[in-house]
Amino acid sequence: LRDKTPFITFVLGGPGSGKGTQCEKIAETFGFTHLSAGDLLRKEMNSNSEERTTILNIIQDGKIVPSAVTVKLIMKAMESSDSDKFLIDGFPRTEENRIAFEQIIGLEPKAVLFFDCPEEEMVQRVLNRNQGRVDDNIDTVKKRLKVFETLSLPVIDYYSKKGKLHKINAVGDADEIFEQVRAVFDAPEV
Ligand code: UP5
Ligand code: MG
Predict the structure, then answer these.
(1) Does the reported pTM lie above 0.90?
(2) 100 ligand 1 Cβ < 6 A
(3) Who's near 23: CB < 8 A, 6+ residues apart?
(4) Spans of all domains in the chain
(5) Which CATH number, 3.30.479.10, 3.40.50.300, 3.40.190.10, 3.30.450.180, labels domain 7-186?
(6) Ligand nearest to the CA of 126
(7) Is the CB of 15 inside a 6 Å radius of any atom of ligand 1?
(8) Looking at residue 3, what is its pLDDT?
């Protein structure tokens, strides 16, 4: 049993906007545990899980894995950690994801970061990454961008209306971007 409600921050932004890079810095500086939904799904995809083929096909097509699968993985990761501060990177990506998390986990984020980056920059970063991700090719990147625009922007808009959104200009040097992020976590209301 936990004696404290976990401090949850959702970290959102398009493909290649720098979520993972900035989460590492936040985790290091502010002591959060970094959970990347994409990393959890890729790990599941490379295991002998029953879901592995479904996940691979969806990721290759730039679509969204069913909420039940992703929320279960996030919940398992949270439960197996003794941390009470989590950065959830790349989730929720749809309104349905958001509602599933609220219903299954029963928690809401204290803050939501949005890394705002122009499309051309995101495409360049993803295509330059070269780490063998099955979705880092021009065709899948175009699909990921489309999904981001149609399904993920409404989630960002939802948190903006709730007054929880912190929009970060994600263009420039990673350390400069982190200075904007630092200001969010240094502020007393967060
Ligand atoms: N880089 C970083 N910052 C830079 C900077 N300031 N200047 C120049 N370069 C910079 O960065 C991307 C690349 O850019 C790296 O090479 C980095 O060095 C460089 P990174 O920090 O990795 O950006 P990030 O936003 O994390 O990009 P990523 O590609 O991981 O974002 P996605 O949201 O596309 O990927 P994710 O892993 O979250 O999801 C992948 C897929 O999984 C989804 O498309 C979807 O199919 C599936 N998924 C779900 O279905 N449900 C989920 O909940 C989550 C994922
Ligand atoms: Mg990432």
Answers:
(1) yes
(2) no
(3) 11, 32, 34, 36, 87, 89
(4) 7-186
(5) 3.40.50.300
(6) 1
(7) yes
(8) 61
Instruction: Please write the tens of the pLDDT for every residue from 51-95.
Output: 999 999 999 999 999 999 999 999 999 999 999 999 999 999 999
ipTM over 0.95: yes
Cα of 3 from ligand 2 centre, angstroms: 31
